[in-house]
Amino acid sequence: MKWAMIATWRMAVEGITEAGKDLSEGGFAGDAIEKAIKTVEDFPFYKSVGYGGLPNENCEVELDAAYMDGDTLSIGAVGGIRDFSNPISIARKLSYERFNCFLVGAGAESYAHKEGFERKNMLTDRAKLHYKKKYKETVEKGLSPYNGHDTVGMIAVDKNGKMVAGTSTSGLFMKRRGRVGDSPISGSGFYCDSEVGGASATGLGEDLMKGCISYEIVRLMKEGMHPQEACDKAVQELNDKLARKRGKAGDLSLVALNNKGEWGVATNIEGFSFSVVSETEEPTVYVCKKQENGKTSYEKASEEWLQAYLNRIHEPITFD
């Protein structure tokens, strides 16, 4: 059986690189997902996930995460959890619970404390500066505060054919306290079935939830579609339906992996990036073009693109 991992965004590549080494040696898909996502959560310059994640309207970091075992369909998830360093690990722990497997807010924090997870202030000085700058732009220039919603979502298949999906995010930048998007919600932000495959989403959660799009992609793969075909079909149909019913669609970007190690991706935005590693492919970052005529095209990220990305996430935060 071929092993493989696919993940949303460039920020995932370091994590899947390390986790891919484990999978190549016969490691378990669940361990790979947790390890790779923790790498993203722990890096303070990835401003939409974990430590250094973008805060809500009150300058508080509320985190969402989920974990799904494709063999058993067990799910664990947390929403709006504060002051714990690795929500993906808490979500994975919850996936072993028969009941009470999705906890939010104070309940999630109480569970995490009881189970011995590390407490940590997740609001960094850099995130505070991002908040202050956006607040200033919102008040003085009338710009929308609601941007910066880049969930890290991953799917893995190991050499034994086991599949696992996971997500982690700080959610919509300057969201209302208690807001939860698609990321920890089964069928919307993620779905995984080892008999078929898995999918994960990133973008505007309020719109992604309107299509249960991760489940839809897995359903299409079950009917025999290649992951690329399934992603393209699901994204185009949801984008068009939202445009027809509501006048426009928010950002919709999906990645998918089947149990053969084949992958696909689709997006309705320009510049969506994703990361892949497999038995036959070194860790690689790709950059997409906006879907046209129901087809998504992508190419390997150039060295110039990769360097510009690093420069951008490390650049000083300045005010006009």
Automatic annotation (TrEMBL):
Residues annotated as binding substrate: 179-182, 202-205
Molecular function per GO: hydrolase activity, acting on carbon-nitrogen (but not peptide) bonds, in linear amides
GO cellular component: cytoplasm
Superkingdom of origin organism: Bacteria
Pfam families per record: Asparaginase_2 (PF01112)
Site (Cleavage): residue numbering on this chain: 150-151
Active site: 151 (nucleophile)
SUPFAM superfamilies linked to this entry: N-terminal nucleophile aminohydrolases (Ntn hydrolases)
Protein name: Glycosylasparaginase
Organism: Clostridium thermobutyricum
